[in-house]
């Protein structure tokens, strides 16, 4: 019987049957499943069909086979090529051979049909919903490919590329000419540039940084943008685009002119690998064709996972942007005229790259994300990873409990994701009779582990989302009806899984603002119920103060509404006592406010005298004495005390806001502070900038997300709430404390990072009847100290570092403020003398 899928071997056997084995053509054709006409033609000297077809093919057989191998391997790496991309690859081959004639309309379809190993199928876009963001499922999918398909590519040929951007000229001051009277302050006005400049950076897994691509906003490069001193960095790749962002043309230009020449393998047969995000410019037809011609494979990260899996996003870009800001302020304070923003950018960015593109920092980013050496468990341990949405605990779907050990304690915790109130109630109802330990985890941001418990059933409320603004909200009374005698107010009802950035954006779309933390990824509910301080809290109250009503599932499984009119004891407790302590909050109504105007003050102070650390901390202690008055005047924000290598010298950097105040208020408030700085100009240098914005959200978006950078090992912290008395009464005591807990002028030692101090002056002094520790109302600064170490640090040394942080640095803070307390969300459980829900 004739077969449709006979092979050339079948034809050869049929020919032998006829010529050497005594069979007729008809018999041989029937035996081998070959058409008799084909056998007859071949016996008369006719070439095979493949040979006849190949003679008319546009590309040689060897190149076709090479294309097939590349296409199949690229598919196994997580990205299958489209018809147009395959066509682009073939046309690129032809152009190399001087053949510019276009391919036929159906060439790709026929090419696929000629090769049985290829098939056209329906492709699906790699959307965020496939993995529900940065989850273990996405990480494991990526590393299955990384380990099985990319492992053979050498680290020196493995590159991560990403694009970042900076708004140049933001907040620049310059020298002006005015009165010789030092008491008269010169104010600079006028429109400053808000031009966006992008940069394309790439780093290898061996710690080498490629030359950057700089994308300026404009039509074409202008010679006057560049000065003679830039000759040393003239080999950077400068590009322009209408908006300062990348596009298809720029991405392709970077690939050809920057990436390919700088990553040429020592062995021409070696393949190269690019790890990159899913931007459309990285998958255009000509991009794929260029990669094919140069034996380059593309690894596209899962959607919304680049912040966890991309080396550049884990440490490198954070260092560059921090260093850039400092360099920009230095340059701006020294210029005698308003410089060209592009020139300013190049100068500052060149210095910033020196700080961020060090080999050790680059290698740290690769290690931390598990990309090299390849280690999926590094990525699975990333602090921002979220549980899988599809993970179900089948054992909790029935009344029968899971099998426990003889001591009734499971070896591992179970996690349950809930998407509605009924799910929460069902599992709480089941757990109570079983005496099962419970824990609540809105988002898992808490680094101190208070959202987890050994052997517990963890209720994960991240998917309980929602936002509804009501400009005339009133609380619910006992009869489940609105309280008629309550004064209407603007409020937002939110789900328990909402994050700060979600709330800020949702409120801003309706011209409103709500309080939240300084880290965009923090979950509001856990933050607020433990107190909660952030950019707006000094003005509008602590997070706990802003809770107006809450829907809570109690341990017995009952859903209750808690506010001032019903379940008032529970309402009192969750506002400062920790929301997960008394039940599972599934929804809350929080106060909302008209979007405030904002004045922003940035202050950057550094020492010139690097030989006297005690002198520096004495000076900083003197600056702290001004904080209580600044706070009373409405100024609120955060500051950092840092040292090398994050800063060139010991530095005090602050970012403060003032809301809805008349022009000139900020200048009057900070005048004593500035005068103190000016009097110390022989030993310190400083830059001070004041910016006004019509809305808080507009300026908030331009500043870095505090606390979002990833660590690359272990770490220890300590903190204390400090009153006005602690920062003003005894300057010597404060100076000695700062010297004990703060960074050194020498920088990191023995594998440990230089400690840093962060101060939050964003606390409300207005007393509210709630469970919040009363110490908060007397607090001027929440001071926290942190340090870290590499993940290969021996346990004994790390243990000594924790002991030093707890019993030396922490003890120094407790001596400074013996009657103070600590922030429930940040205090370490090993802190001596700690008393929960009490002054400690």
TrEMBL record:
A GO molecular-function descriptor: oxidoreductase activity
Cofactor(s) listed in the protein's UniProt record: FAD
Residue ranges of domain HTH CENPB-type in the record: 51-121
Span list, region Disordered: 18-49
Assigned keywords, A-Z: DNA-binding, FAD, Flavoprotein, Nucleus, Oxidoreductase
Compartments (UniProt record): Nucleus
Family named by the database record: Belongs to the oxygen-dependent FAD-linked oxidoreductase family.
Database matches in Gene3D superfamilies: 3.30.465.10, 3.40.462.20
Superkingdom to which the source organism belongs: Eukaryota
Bias-annotated ranges (Polar residues): 35-48
Any one GO CC term of the record: nucleus
InterPro entries tied to this protein: DDE_SF_endonuclease_dom, FAD-bd_PCMH, FAD-bd_PCMH-like_sf, FAD-bd_PCMH_sub2, FAD-linked_Oxidoreductase, Homeodomain-like_sf, HTH_CenpB_DNA-bd_dom, HTH_Psq
Entry protein name: HTH CENPB-type domain-containing protein
Residues in FAD-binding PCMH-type domain copies: 408-595
């Amino acid at each position: 019987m004739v077969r449709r899928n006979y092979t050339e071997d079948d034809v050869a056997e049929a020919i032998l049957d006829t010529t050497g084995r005594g069979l007729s053509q008809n018999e041989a054709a029937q035996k081998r499943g070959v058409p008799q006409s084909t056998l007859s033609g071949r016996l008369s000297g006719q070439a095979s069909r493949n040979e006849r077809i190949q003679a008319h093919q546009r590309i040689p057989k060897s190149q076709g086979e090479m294309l097939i191998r590349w296409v199949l391997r690229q598919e196994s790496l997580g990205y299958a090529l489209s018809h147009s991309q395959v066509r682009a690859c073939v046309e690129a081959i032809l152009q190399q051979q001087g053949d510019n004639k276009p391919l036929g309309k159906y060439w790709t379809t026929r090419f696929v049909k000629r090769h049985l190993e290829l098939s056209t199928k329906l492709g699906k876009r790699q959307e965020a919903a496939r993995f529900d963001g940065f989850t273990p499922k996405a990480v494991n999918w990526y590393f299955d490919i990384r380990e099985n398909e990319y492992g053979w590519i050498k680290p020196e040929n493995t590159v991560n590329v990403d694009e970042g951007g900076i708004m140049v000229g933001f907040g620049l001051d310059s020298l002006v000419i005015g009165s010789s009277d030092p008491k008269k302050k010169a104010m600079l006005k006028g429109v400053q540039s808000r031009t966006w400049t992008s940069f394309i950076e790439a780093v290898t897994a061996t710690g080498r940084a490629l030359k950057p691509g700089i994308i300026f906003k404009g039509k074409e490069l202008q010679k006057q943008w560049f000065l003679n001193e830039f000759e040393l960095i003239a080999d950077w790749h400068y590009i322009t685009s209408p908006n300062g962002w990348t596009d298809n043309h720029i991405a392709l230009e970077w690939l050809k002119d920057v990436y390919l020449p700088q990553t040429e393998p020592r062995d021409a047969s070696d393949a190269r690998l690019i790890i990159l995000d899913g931007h459309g410019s990285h998958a255009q037809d000509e991009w794929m064709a260029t990669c094919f011609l140069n034996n380059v494979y593309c690894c596209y990260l899962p959607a919304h996972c680049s912040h966890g899996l991309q080396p550049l996003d884990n440490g490198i870009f954070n260092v560059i942007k921090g260093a850039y800001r400092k360099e920009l302020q230095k340059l701006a304070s020294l210029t005698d005229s308003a410089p060209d923003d592009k020139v300013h950018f190049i100068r500052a960015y060149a210095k910033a790259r020196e700080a961020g593109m060090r080999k050790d920092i680059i290698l740290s980013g690769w290690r931390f994300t598990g990309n090299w050496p390849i280690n999926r468990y590094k990525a699975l341990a990333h602090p921002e990873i979220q549980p899988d949405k599809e993970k179900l605990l089948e054992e909790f779907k029935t009344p029968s409990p899971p099998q426990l050990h003889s001591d009734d304690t499971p070896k591992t915790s179970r996690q349950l994701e809930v998407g509605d109130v009924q799910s929460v109630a069902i599992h709480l109802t089941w757990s109570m009779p079983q005496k099962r330990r419970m824990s609540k985890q809105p988002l898992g941001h808490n680094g101190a582990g208070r959202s987890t418990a050994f052997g517990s059933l963890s209720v994960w409320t991240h998917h309980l989302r929602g936002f509804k603004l009501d400009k005339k909200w009133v609380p619910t009374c006992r009869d489940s009806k609105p309280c008629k005698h309550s004064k209407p107010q603007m409020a937002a009802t939110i789900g328990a899984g909402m994050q700060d950035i979600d709330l800020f954006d949702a409120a801003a779309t309706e011209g409103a603002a709500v309080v939240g933390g300084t880290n965009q990824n923090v979950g509001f509910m856990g933050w607020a119920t433990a107190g909660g301080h952030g950019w707006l809290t000094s003005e509008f109250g602590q997070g706990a103060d802003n809770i107006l009503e809450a829907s809570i599932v109690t341990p017995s499984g009952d859903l209750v509404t808690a506010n001032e009119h019903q379940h008032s004891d529970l309402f009192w407790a969750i506002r400062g006592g920790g929301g997960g302590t008394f039940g599972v909050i599934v929804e809350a109504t929080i106060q909302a406010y008209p979007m405030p105007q904002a004045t922003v003050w940035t202050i950057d102070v550094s020492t010139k005298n690097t030989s006297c650390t005690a002198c520096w901390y004495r000076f900083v202690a003197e600056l702290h004495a001004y904080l209580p008055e600044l706070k009373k005047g409405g100024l609120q924000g955060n500051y950092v005390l840092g040292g090398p290598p994050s800063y060139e010298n010991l530095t005090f950097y602050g970012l403060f806001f003032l809301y809805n105040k008349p022009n000139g208020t900020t200048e009057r408030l900070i005048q004593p502070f500035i005068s103190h700085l000016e009097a110390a100009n022989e030993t310190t240098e400083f830059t001070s900038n004041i910016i006004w914005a019509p809305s808080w959200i507009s300026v908030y978006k331009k500043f870095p997300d505090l606390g979002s950078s990833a660590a690359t090992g272990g770490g220890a912290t300590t903190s204390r709430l400090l009153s006005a008395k602690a920062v003003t009464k005894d300057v010597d005591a404060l100076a000695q404390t700062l010297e004990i807990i703060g960074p050194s002028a020498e920088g990191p030692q023995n594998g440990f990072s230089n400690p840093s101090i962060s101060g939050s002056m964003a606390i409300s002094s207005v007393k509210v009847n709630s469970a919040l520790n009363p110490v908060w109302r007397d607090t001027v600064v929440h001071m926290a100290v942190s340090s870290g170490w590499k993940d290969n640090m021996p346990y004994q040394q790390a243990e000594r570092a924790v002991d030093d942080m707890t019993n030396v640095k922490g003890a120094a803070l407790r001596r400074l403020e013996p009657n103070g307390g600590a922030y429930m969300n940040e205090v370490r459980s090993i802190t001596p003398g700690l008393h929960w829900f009490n002054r400690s």
